[in-house]
Amino acid sequence: MRKITRPLMAALAAGAMALTMAACGGGEDKSDTKDTSGTETTADAGTDAGTDAGADEGSDSTDDGTEDVGSDEGAGGATAGEVTWWGWTPDTPVAEKYIAAFNEVYPDIKITYVNYENADYAPTMQSAFQTGAGPDIFDVSAGGNVGGKQLWGEYAEDLAPYAEAFLGADWKDQFATGYVDQLTYEGAVVALPLGGVAADFFWINKDLFEANGVSTELKTYDELKAACDTFAAAGVQCFTMGTNSTDTFSTELLRTIMSSIQPDMYMKCLHGEESWDNEVTIQALQIVQQMQADGIISQDATSIKQYPESNNNFMSQKAAIVQMGTWYAQYAAEESMLGSMEGAGVSNPTPFTMLPMVAPDFAGLGNVPEYVGEADYGLAINIDSPNKDAAWTFVSWLTATQEGQQKVANAIDLVPALLGVSADWDNLGLVSADIQIPIFQQMFADAAAAPESRNLYISAETGNAQVIAMQQILTGGDPAAIAAQMEADSVDLPVE
Prior knowledge:
This protein is of the alpha/beta class. The chain is 39% helix and 14% strand. It has 18 helices and 15 strands. The strands form four sheets. The chain has a seven-stranded mixed beta sheet. Strands 10-11-9-12 form a four-stranded mixed beta sheet. A hairpin with a 2-residue loop joins β6 and β7. α1 packs antiparallel against α3, α9 (251-261) packs across α11 and α11 packs across α18.
């Protein structure tokens, strides 16, 4: 396993675009009809929007066009302008709420948000940066093959001096532990964290579970299989997942299973302390194969994507279980759920109660998979942006003010990055608030205390290797040969 210190950008982008075709035998991916230009939303500056005392406080630019970062008491940026923001997250309705709230304070800054599917983000960003047509603001994550800092960090402004001028010398300590460091690349803070995320657990449709007499706690493989048999008899798909994409959602099942075999093995492999070609990886791949044979994983898994198809299967109540992370909590609010159900093709939808469920002990060794988490993503400012002042006003408001972070908390798709902020649980409009609030509060507490990172040390190459592994194991591949190829194709990221 070789080391990497700088991204091989052209090779990674080309590899990402070719990955699905290579893994699926060269067939054209006809299921993805999404326009790769993304879904765009704009919140126009409104003349009736209110302002607060800080709305007209901002930094001035110097005569040569560079910003004087520390010259103001407000957000440290402009109070008027136009800014573009590209991301694979948040979903457009959530972004619209963020922008609308921001425009109540800064009505003369127009934010245009473009949302991309995970698989489209990397190739679109690479093309944009090569041609100088990139956005003013863009998403960056701690690692992975979509928004990893090792991919896009070199295009981002160092936000450390901005943040220090805005929050003071102890600014890092005002964010959740580790979040700023996780978005630091080669000594530069390439993005400010919007919030954290955790994964390696399931989401269930409580209504379907209760209607079919299935326990909402499935603690072993045998209990999961029995539940899936019950759902199958009732004409309900049990566990929906999609592998026909370059995104890494499906690989989280592999990690979850590896954690039930030997909890520390996945991280050891990421750090190069162990080879991916080991008995734990091979056994985990065998369990994935067995899940398909036992009808837990449906036969359509290799022909659909996690988004939109698996998401739609769950939101339309065709499937009872899906593996997603804390970001999925946003759909537990009735308004968001109804919109998502309609988007999944449901006419006149009735909201259902969705709950997180700890993954079962797949291997039967007594190891219950724990959450893995980190700063989900941050907002970066393009180092070549002509609109840095206005971009900073938005970035600082959303990531580093109580008001902005409260909006993030209330969207309940992220653990707030700024300390001291939590969701206004009683006023979120949850479908079954009395049931969901205590469970969600525990979920977010567990997420904040996750013992392992999620994507921080996953290079684009390692993520791609695992995507291919999951595609191959579900099309009859040999587990040992797949594990050996994972080792050959994976690349370590240095521990910073």
